[in-house]
Structures
1.
Amino acid sequence: MAAELLKIHPQNPEMRKINHVVDVLKNGGIIVYPTDTIYGIGCDLMNRKSIERLCQIMNIKPQKLDLSFICNDLSHISEFVRRLDTPVFKVLKKALPGPFTFILESSSRVPKILDVNKKTVGIRIPDHAIPRIIVEHLQNPLITTSIKDDDQIKAYTTDPEEIYEDFKHKVDVVIDGGIGGNVPSTVVDCTGDDFSIIRQGLGDFDQYL
């Protein structure tokens, strides 16, 4: 059965539609959704079968799975990372919500995804209402990865209708939240003695130091 293409208002998401998406996720579904950077694909972090399916869709081996979570606020983050030192917490408080992925040491609560115990996780709180409200009502993070294009010139697909054509037989819901961006998040490693930018994307991290 083909996926559902669901148009949701990016600033004022309709709760009836959000609740529908949450039900899909709770039942093991995979969704494509907008963020403040590029479109992502994800599922409920606590549903192992969904994660296995996500790996198959994206052709990712579990051992190579880089965990990136969508959370809805800083208190949510604290459940899944080992500790937030004061300097790190202060920076996260200033930079989030925003176009950053922060690499942090994972807590014991993080499930051993597909029997692979990852010591670090990437945490995102996007500055976009749709994914944050979904996560708030799901009450679990979304485990997520980016939607990439096969086109050598265009790295990321921005049109949700194009994304739908690519994924309509692979996922359960594609959320149309408008045209997405084509620059990914800036990835910042917080596990060392200092902040280290692993990937420069959207957002100027230096302004938060």
2.
Amino acid sequence: MAIILGIDPGSRITGYGVVRQQGRQLIYLGSGCIRTQVDDLPTRLQRIYAGIIEIITQYQPDSFAVEQVFMAKNADSALKLGQARGVAILAAVNNQLPVFEYAARQVKQSVVGTGAAEKKQVQHMVCSVLKLSSHPQADAADALAIAITHCHFNQNLVRMGDPRLLLAKGRLR
């Protein structure tokens, strides 16, 4: 049994989703968004870091899964996204969590079955897989999809003896 924290990074809204993997069964533990609600980037980054630390403290995850940065049309937006992603990863590493990264297309393929899936399709499948009665907010649904993707890949990582999982083995419940 393992608890996975999925993160959909953003400089204004960072989605998070937490699931427990028990064999092949996935259990929803929580999700939501860290909303920075300020204009200056350093304060937004601090709030993202603090929010993720709070989530890690509350849920005690075994693994941290985050979406990889994609190429954005706007370089400034891509840089801010990269910085938000960086502080999220720092929060995980500072809490000795192994970090796993997944491309957006990989997440969509894993959860929906096609790498070109729309956000609404991802939300629908997240609800279906986790047996949720209502749709989580889009950023939280994306974070849950990232956590689900990690669960799907988790079995292969264990079989292959991935060293990041071996570091966490003592924490797996």
